[in-house]
Amino acid sequence: MSGDIHDIRGLHVIVDGEHTLGRTHADVASAALRGGARVIQLRDKRLTVRELYPVALELRELTREHGAVFIVNDSVELALASGADGVHLGQGDMPADVARRLMGPDRIIGVSTHSVDEAMAAEQSGADYIGFGPMFVTATKDAGAAKGPEGLKLVRGCVRIPVVAIGGIKASNAKQVIDAGADGIAVITAVTAAEDVEAAAREIAGQFGVH
Amino acid sequence: MSGDIHDIRGLHVIVDGEHTLGRTHADVASAALRGGARVIQLRDKRLTVRELYPVALELRELTREHGAVFIVNDSVELALASGADGVHLGQGDMPADVARRLMGPDRIIGVSTHSVDEAMAAEQSGADYIGFGPMFVTATKDAGAAKGPEGLKLVRGCVRIPVVAIGGIKASNAKQVIDAGADGIAVITAVTAAEDVEAAAREIAGQFGVH
Hints:
Chain A is an alpha/beta fold. Chain A has helices at residues 25-34, 49-65, 76-82, 96-103, 116-124, 148-156, 171-179, 189-192, 197-205, and strands spanning 10-15, 39-42, 69-73, 86-89, 108-113, 129-132, 163-166, 184-187. Chain A has nine helices and eight strands.
């Protein structure tokens, strides 16, 4: 399972330097991988592309060592330059079909969505998976009203590609999100801002049956 | 001459939606091209990649019709997606040698520089031309102390690739910049914020001997 870069089921840890309690991206990613993270996503809106490039190369190496997936947030060029497995696109980024032309058929393209319509449009445009949320109220990002496991169930029924739930998910509420049909769970602070990153990752990753 | 996309000698007009007196990027670019602009560069830090993409496609079409060169500022992915002739990189963008891997050998890579050292490093890293400035004091961008035509002459003597002067250049001081050895002159407001964009472009473009 860990050999298939298209298997993005399980725990996604979004590593954002703003939420690591001062630890490096690589330190946090490393610990999250030891804890069972399936996907590491690099996101850091404070840094320039120039600054992110060496960080991306480092995370590329780390994820490869763990047979995990490496995804870059927002930047198609950074994903390509660092040899990432894929890119995660928000509504302000390159459209998925245009990104596909640049990324080729074999890399992963994820798209953030917040409704059934957006989810179906993302699938239509060639996304390999969708992010969907926010599940719960969250302080990290203002992403609209909480959709909850019920909203996820609805979306899960409308698309065939994997759905990765995001927004306010932590160890204590992960189970209900997985039970609602989430193929993956993406977290930021629940793991990256934990004192023991590895243990925090393990506590969520362990809730996915086979992982 | 207008058939060679690598000939970037002449007037570069940087079209930034913030400085067009409310006119569209395409309207301003169109008029600048009629006035003899050799290169149109798209730069608009207020817009997302998603928003810039259709604008880039439009400018790509317009420049092609005029046998002119189209360059995208900052974004390698936007340059690739829109079929631009090249990208112009600042110090926070992708390093030129990394951009080259993504862009291939035939597209143009320009790099902003502000000293002889930066200019030589840019040439070393495979840039096709350098931007150099600021020539004069400018309100558009805080880019450090004015280098003047003397600074340009110095840089011109240290690199073999074309040097495009930028920063506070207008019709009344363009001649001294060209005389100091500038292969190109890049302007923003001197053309894009002029009431008559075409005439403003012509007044500067006309100062390059053969154009």
